[in-house]
Amino acid sequence: MANIVECQNLTHYYGKHLVYENMSFNIKKGSIFALLGKNGTGKTTTINILNGYLKPKSGQCLIMGYDSLHLPPHIKEKIGFLIEGHIQYSFMTISQIEKFYAAFYPDWRRDAYYELMEKLDISYNQRIYTLSCGQRSQLALGLILAQNPDMMILDDYSMGLDAGYRKVFLDYLSEYVKSGNKTLFITSHIIQDLEYFVKDVVILGYHDILYSGTVNNLKENYRLYRFDLNNSHHPILKDDIVDNLEIFRNHVNLYSYHDLRTIEKYLERNQINYKHIHEIPMTLEDIFIGITGKY
Questions:
Q1: Which has the closest alpha carbon to 181: 201, 157, 155, 151?
Q2: Residue 84 pLDDT exceeds 70
Q3: Residue 257: φ, ψ to 5°
Q4: Pick from 39, 126, 22, 125: nearest CA to 84
Q5: Which is it for strands 200-204 and 79-82: parallel, antiparallel or unpaired?
Q6: What is the three-class DSSP state of 62?
Q7: Which of 57, 7, 47, 51 shows the shortest CA–CA distance to 27?
Q8: CA separation for the pair 244, 275 (Å, rounded)
């Protein structure tokens, strides 16, 4: 499957603060992709580079084969973009904003927009500034669906959405992807919504990538082992076996890509006196915390 996005050796600083160095990843055409990471790891920075709003210190991003800093108009119209804040021109009515946007897109699908507005029971004459934050987010989604882009980029789409609105949002995004080889690029702080939705994921740490691959591979291979120490001495360090570690008093949470027998041999080899070791099932959110750490 061809790549619709290729980010190659991205390095960026804000002043002297390094965001990341030589970061590379690809997004396959037709995929549902998530860029995850804690605050300050560079998710929005990456999206701003992708959209040509920000020039990286070095490296480049290609979208549909074009440098993201110099996208021609016929490529820009194939990209739908929802950023924090959702929408401008809040003085307009629901119908006015639709007519305004329609003039810029030759493949405009007004029915997709008004279908969502009717589901939300929003009057066509209602002004945008009177809408709740969640409704404005759905309005922005409706405008993007009407645009019918080949790729949709949603930066923290869940902001301002309660559980019901998030479910509606994801239902519409699912239909969008199924409508014909569409690509979806999401960042979000609410990871549990994405567990059965996203297929490919990149997890950012501070300055680099901690994981890049499929969600299924991550869920099948990343494991949490819990056990107690028999004394306060615990020479357990992060290495090729131990991906991450949490120790509170004599209670240990050990994260690893290895099976239970490998972990037991590791503990015995390092003369760690332990008891009651067992594997704990994890959600995608649990895995994210394990990879990135709680703090």
A1: 151
A2: no
A3: -95, 5
A4: 39
A5: unpaired
A6: strand
A7: 7
A8: 19
Q: What is the C-alpha to C-alpha distance for residues 162 and 136, in angstroms, rounded to an integer?
A: 13
Predicted TM-score (pTM) of the model is 0.87
Confirm if 143 and 101 have CB atoms less than 8 A apart.
yes
Q: Report yes or no: 266 and 225 within 8 Å, Cβ to Cβ.
A: no
- The interaxial angle of helices 133-147 and 94-102, nearest 10 deg, is 30
pLDDT tens profile 179-208: 778 999 998 777 888 888 899 999 999 989
126: pLDDT strictly greater than 70: yes
pLDDT at position 231: 74
User: What is residue 158's three-state secondary structure?
Assistant: coil
Whole-number pLDDT of residue 133: 79
Task: Say which residues have a Cβ less than 8 Å from residue 62's Cβ, sequence separation at least 6.
Answer: 5, 6, 7, 8, 68
Which residue's structure tokens are 């690893």? 256
Which backbone phi and psi does 129 adopt, to 5 degrees? -65, -15
Average pLDDT of the chain? 88
Q: Which helix (H) or strand (E) holds 289?
A: helix 284-292
Look at residue 174 in the predicted model and tell me its pLDDT: 85
| Eight-class DSSP state of 54 | S
CB atoms within 10 A of CB 177: 17
